[in-house]
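Project standup — Tuesday

K.O.: blocked on the structure for the chain from last sprint. Re-posting the sequence here as requested.
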Amino acid sequence: MLLILGFSYACCATNVKVVMEKGLGNAAVRVGIPTSGFFYKWFVCKSVSIESNVLRNLPVDSAGIFRFQIMGANVDLLLFPTDTVILFVSKADGNKIYVEVEGSNAQGHNLFMELDSPKPKKFLRVRSRVMNLTSVEGVCSIYESYADSLCNLFREQYAKGQITREYYEAACCYIKDDLGVCLIELFNVKWASNRARRDSLYRHYLDFMDWQNPRFAGLRTETIDWYYCFKYSGGDTEPEKLLLNVYTHQVMLPSIHQQYQTASTIAFAATHGSSDEIDWRRCHKYFISKFPNSVFLEPLNKTLEPYYAIKEEDVKREVVVLKPAIPYPTLSALFADKYKGKVVFVDFWASWCGPCRSEFIHTKELHALLAKYSVEMLYISIDEKEAAWLNALKSGILVGSHYRANEQLYADIDKTFFPDSNLGIPRYALIGPSGEILNPNMPRPSSMETLEEEIKRLINVGDYKK
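H.V.: unblocked you, prediction finished:
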């Protein structure tokens, strides 16, 4: 099966056409477009939906990471305003998506995807090499050497004329930033008490990644944010501290990074139920007053619009906390009491779980999908602290029924869904009308099309056929 996407960039715009061969289906391909080179981080950037055989114009104002959502899979590509590319997408090994690129910088795109966009697949090997080192300089040297080795792969392509100099430089920026985050995380674990030494090495790595160069600023975001968080966290008394809480360091970032990270933080708090961290409404007003002309203001406003519409009385009515007289000791007891005869989609999560909350941005679409197939929604939290769990529900994002697992239920979940591994979240499951597990590991809401296909497959067999 083959999916062909054609691009023709001209005057900062791209004409896009999707042609699907018979048998692949007619699913649309959604493309997330970066804003001034910055790819979205929680807030909604520009995006277009490309239907089969429909010519679309894709606006491009600068180089950046474009995210293609193809049949439940995310494919990230580094694109430029003058590129012309074709993506060949096939399915094999079950439903796994394979992508091959032709056109501008084709060899670079294929290498970029091979390196896992482009977080290196061999990263764990690198990490194992440095965990036992006692020299911080030695750790830093290994990371820089590894980043250089990956950049050299693109440098060789450039030398052969296979990619442009711009693509080579941009790919190197992204690689160094990606590895820089891993390096800083490691420093914070191994040398937490040696602040002065870490600061020196952080600055050394930032210079290595040419962090002050405004070119491709959108590809140098995470390492810079981590460094400023380390350098300016705690001890400050500026007025923003009471407003931004643990994110106060963002007011010290270079201007464009300050706008991007602050907008992302505000959107994250609103869309992920992080009201315990910052008051996103007050922070939004602060952002408007400080950056009235920011390129990120429009996508931030668009993201926040539905969350302003949530009212306290709606939360009390639509967010239902299950409070049985006797706590449920097992999942079977819970389903038998509350969901007998019903198909249930279960979301196992916790207020402290970042990946769990990242999926919440798809909640509205998820609820609509479940209603379409008469499937009930149940959220089961494994939070140890009840207050943290209830506080996360105040946002009103998670409309539906909620239950917090006690020690017995936690053990039952662990035994039922993770018999050969440690309990890990987020995790999603589909439960049948008799309490049977139809699928213990459902696709995530962020892969909505794949999730719908699995729900359709499961509920249209056996005694629970719709």
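K.O.: great, moving the ticket to review. The mean pLDDT is 79. The chain has 17 helices and 15 strands.
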